[in-house]
């Protein structure tokens, strides 16, 4: 018999599946606190010295824009609108549609060109450069201007994609440059129907690397071109608050060899250095190297929580199922997968909507002394993280506590992956049972139970207080023949 309990409607289907695959026992009990972890703030814009992190809040309704649906689009518009005479900028996108997004960007680009700004635009081969998403305006039309035309470049190769989603902006008067990069394509669906995230960084060294990459693409040197350069790949930079140098990788990479110079090598090294927690939101994961590194982290006691959209969990070459297989783990500490919420209101969970989670990030030890954020345009696939000739991509490595907190907030908004949970099993005929539980912070929690899952007021039976210890812990309990439903909850302040 399997019994499930929860503090709110709906349970962690993916958690249930992973644990059921991992363990053989009489009963399993899942639990969910009624509120978000106290130290995770649910803002959609985080900012500090030289950086801002923004994430959209999808509402799944393209005809009724939510208040934070277009926060990423608006960041690009603000940067374009700030361009003046002889400023330089270049934007790059994999897709470009919708009057509300592409149309407004076209209008802003046209006005900036009229002011005298020099602007480039890089598009994948699938972008319709002739479409008038704004009355009388198209990418090809802006490129045909008689005065100060848009410099337009479109990927010609059929054997790969230009998947950058970025903008670099140089403002001469301020002698400053900004880089905007993330998972958001320039579309209405990317705003209304997907979870996406963007970094906005003011650093001239980083902007120089992106500028060099964009200039290569503007000159037609895309992924398959033998003249493609790696000179700016791996450029390092340091923002205030970083505990180490950050860097950026650009696909295609110098080497696809195991342990070679590519983003996958850097990612697995970062996972192997994790001490406490890993949270990831990935559109697609196909690299077994990542599964192996995450299993090693779990075996060291690192808590690993993740989200992959239902539509991509079992895509060709996906290694999602491998994350759930106990053979990869030496302890009961496993990667725990959570379903994403369907919308910002958190009223439904992922039912299979295509690319619901479009983010491509991992945040490592976000509440530790040496946090890291890894994110960019790249899905975690061979062509995006390893290949020497397939995709044009960018991946940022950011050792910054403020940015890590912002990405953790995104993970908390998108899923229940930062709320306390527990799972209980007996291991067969034993007279005792064990309880694994996870706490998001060091505040005091308690284990409670009810025999009536349908009565919210019945969660009054305290088993015991739990040690105020963040992370995954184990507690031994006596077995009880009666059906009981357990949950972990924060101890009320009065207690």
Keywords:
495 residues; alpha+beta; 2 domains; eight-stranded mixed sheet
Characterise the protein shown here.
There is one protein chain. The protein is α+β, with helices and mostly antiparallel strands and 495 residues long. The chain has 2 domains: 95 residues, no CATH class; 370 residues, Endonuclease Chain A (Endonuclease, Chain A, 2-Layer Sandwich). Helices cover 22% and strands 25% of the residues. The chain has 11 helices and 23 strands. The strands form 4 sheets. Strands 6, 10, 11, 12, 13, 14, 15, 16 and 17 form a 9-stranded mixed beta sheet that branches. Strands 1-2-9-8-7-3-4-5 form an 8-stranded mixed beta sheet, sandwiched between helices. Strands 18-19-22 form a 3-stranded antiparallel beta sheet, with no helix packed on it. Strand 18 and strand 19 form a beta hairpin. The longest helix has 17 residues. The radius of gyration is 24 Å and the shape is elongated. The N terminus is likely disordered.
- According to DSSP, the number of beta strands is 23
Average pLDDT confidence is 88
Q: Bin the helical content.
A: 10-25%
User: What would CATH call the homologous superfamily of the largest domain?
Assistant: Endonuclease Chain A
Category by helix and strand content = alpha+beta
Tertiary shape:
elongated
How many helices does DSSP assign?
11
**Low-pLDDT sequence parts:** 1-38
Q: How many domains make up the coordinates?
A: 2
- Please describe the biggest sheet, giving its number of strands, its sense, and whether it closes into a barrel: 9 strands, mixed
The portion of residues forming beta strands comes to 25-35%
């Amino acid at each position: 018999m399997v019994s499930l309990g929860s503090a709110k409607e709906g349970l962690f289907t993916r958690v249930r599946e992973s644990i059921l695959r991992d363990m053989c026992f009489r009963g399993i009990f899942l639990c969910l606190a009624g509120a978000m972890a106290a130290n995770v703030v649910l803002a959609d814009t985080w900012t500090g010295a030289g950086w801002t992190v923004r994430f959209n809040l999808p509402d799944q309704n393209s005809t009724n824009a939510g208040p934070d649906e277009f926060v990423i689009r608006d960041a690009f518009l603000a940067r374009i609108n700030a361009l003046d005479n002889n400023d330089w900028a270049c934007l790059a996108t994999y897709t470009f549609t919708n009057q509300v997004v592409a149309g407004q960007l076209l209008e802003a680009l046209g006005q900036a060109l009229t002011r005298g700004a020099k602007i480039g635009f890089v598009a994948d081969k699938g972008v319709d450069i002739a479409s008038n998403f704004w009355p009388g305006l198209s990418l090809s039309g802006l490129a045909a201007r008689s005065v100060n035309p848009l410099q337009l470049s479109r990927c010609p190769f059929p054997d790969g994609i230009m998947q950058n989603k970025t903008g670099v902006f140089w403002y001469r008067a301020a002698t400053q440059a900004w880089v905007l990069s993330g998972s958001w394509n320039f579309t209405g669906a990317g705003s209304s129907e997907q979870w996406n995230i963007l970094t906005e960084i003011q650093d001239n060294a980083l902007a120089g690397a992106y500028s060099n990459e964009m200039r290569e693409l503007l000159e037609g040197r895309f992924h398959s071109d033998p003249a493609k350069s790696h000179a700016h790949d791996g450029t390092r930079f340091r923002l205030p608050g970083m505990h180490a140098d950050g860097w950026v990788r650009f696909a295609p990479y110098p080497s696809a060899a195991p342990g070679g110079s590519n983003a996958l090598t850097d990612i697995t090294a970062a996972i192997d250095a994790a001490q406490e927690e890993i949270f990831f939101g990935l559109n697609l994961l196909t690299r077994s190297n990542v599964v192996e590194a995450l299993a090693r982290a779990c075996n060291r006691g690192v808590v690993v929580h993740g989200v992959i959209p239902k539509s991509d969990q079992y895509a060709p070459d996906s290694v999602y199922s491998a994350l759930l297989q106990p053979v990869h783990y030496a302890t009961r500490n496993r990667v725990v997968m959570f379903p994403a919420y369907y919308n910002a209101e958190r009223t439904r969970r992922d039912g299979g909507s295509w690319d619901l989670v479009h983010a491509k990030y991992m945040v490592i030890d976000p509440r530790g002394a040496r946090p890291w954020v890894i994110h960019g345009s790249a899905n975690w696939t061979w062509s995006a993280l390893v290949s020497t000739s397939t995709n044009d991509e960018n991946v940022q490595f950011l050792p910054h506590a403020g940015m890590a907190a912002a990405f953790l907030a995104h993970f908390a908004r998108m899923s229940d992956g930062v709320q306390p949970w527990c799972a209980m099993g007996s291991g067969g005929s034993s007279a005792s049972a064990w309880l694994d539980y996870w706490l998001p912070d060091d505040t005091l929690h308690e284990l409670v139970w009810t025999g009536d899952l349908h009565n919210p007021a019945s969660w009054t039976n305290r088993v015991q207080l739990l040690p105020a210890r963040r992370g995954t812990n184990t507690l031994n309990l006596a077995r009880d023949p009666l059906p009981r439903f357990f949950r972990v909850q924060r101890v009320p302040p009065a207690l």
